[in-house]
Specification:
By secondary structure, this protein is α/β, with parallel strands linked by helices. 47% of the residues lie in helices and 14% in strands. The relative contact order is 0.15.
């Protein structure tokens, strides 16, 4: 099936962590396919508004949805508000944080925060969203952003790797639970993508070594992940569920 422009017309997509980086690119890509996009953000309303302007330029409609996915009560209420006011067809669990450190030095509070935002936050949003997404029937999609390190592990990222690996198990369980209702659930494992997070955690010397280990010999752009999300959100992917799509330049095969 060929890619259909505006195939998401009439659909509402909620993108967590949509104000910057990969999340912003996802919002724009979904808008370009016709979706109304609810842009979730925690504190940077100014950045979310900038994303909304880009969504409008792409021909879409944006609404802002400010809530902290790490706060279960706030996340449940925030997702429910989007679903009640706009309907909800697509959920993209993109928001995440990384607090790095060797296992012997990781503070329990840091471990809990990373797991709480990345894994529990995705679970909370999915649980709140599914009541609305079930009404979308065959158009319903949940797309979870994991990471290459969720499959491979990485020194100094035990908490982040554990959270992202957990997302993969959750994705497959959800896919089996909701398949009978026509809802697909898939995950994407990005490699190293040019974002604020990678800039913060990747010194220049490590960046050069990393690039040399990637078969495509470059850091990925957020749009590469966004295009994969837009594909999984569309009708072309209606027979794909429980899948883990690697967008990593060949870093892990």
């Amino acid at each position: 099936m060929a890619i259909q422009d505006k195939a998401l017309d009439g659909c509402t997509a909620l993108v967590t962590g949509g104000s910057r980086g990969i999340g912003r690119a996802i919002c724009v890509a979904l808008a370009a396919r016709g979706a109304k996009v609810a842009i979730n953000y925690r504190s940077r309303e100014d950045a979310a508004q900038q994303t909304a302007e880009l969504v409008a330029k792409a021909g879409g409609t944006a609404v802002l949805a400010g809530f902290d996915i790490g706060d279960a009560e706030a996340a449940t209420a925030g997702v429910a508000a989007v679903g009640k006011e706009h309907g909800l067809h697509i959920l993209v669990n993109n928001a995440g944080i990384a607090i790095n450190g060797l296992i012997m030095r990781v503070k329990p509070a840091d471990w809990e925060q990373v797991i709480g935002v990345n894994l529990t936050g995705s679970f909370t949003c999915s649980k709140a969203a599914i009541r609305h997404i079930l009404k979308a029937k065959e158009k319903g999609r949940i797309i979870n952003l994991s990471s290459v390190v969720g499959e491979s592990g990485n020194p100094g990222q035990a908490a982040y790797s554990a959270a992202k690996a957990g997302i993969l198990g959750m994705t497959k369980s959800m896919a089996k639970e909701f398949a009978s209702r026509g809802i697909t659930v898939n995950a994407i494992t990005p490699g190293f993508i040019a974002t604020d997070m990678t800039d913060e955690h990747l010194p220049e010397e490590q960046r050069e070594a990393l690039v040399s280990s990637i078969p495509l010999a470059r850091i990925g752009e957020p749009e590469a992940v966004a295009d994969a999300v837009a594909f999984l959100a569309g009708p072309e992917a209606s027979y794909i569920t429980g899948h883990v799509l690697r967008v990593n330049g060949g870093l892990l095969m």
